[in-house]
Amino acid sequence: MPCLNLSTNVSLDGVDTSSILSEASKTVAKVIGKPEAYVMIVLKGSIPISFGGTEQPAAYGELVSIGGLNPDVNKKLSAAIATILETKLSISKSRFFLKFYDTKAHQSQDYAQCLHALHQH
Question: Which residues are tagged catalytic?
């Protein structure tokens, strides 16, 4: 179950967040090769972020998945998400960082929290 957490210092006021969530969800499912029904996207805006010593628009992401990740997939995913952020939020691709956690390789607390959130319903 892939879970993508995105944080940006850009305000999401007046932004069509649904289109960002929808595109990110489809992209993650397609690139990783998992059904979109299992993909979770979390988008947080107005988060204080400094990157390279400035507070220009920037974003940080963490993607947790059980398998399906490898250097090629990670590269494609990073590029695709960067394009969405650049198009929708005017965040330069050079000011976006995406960290990958493959929970097969090592158990991650973030994954447990993501799953925990899903099972609250």
Answer: 2
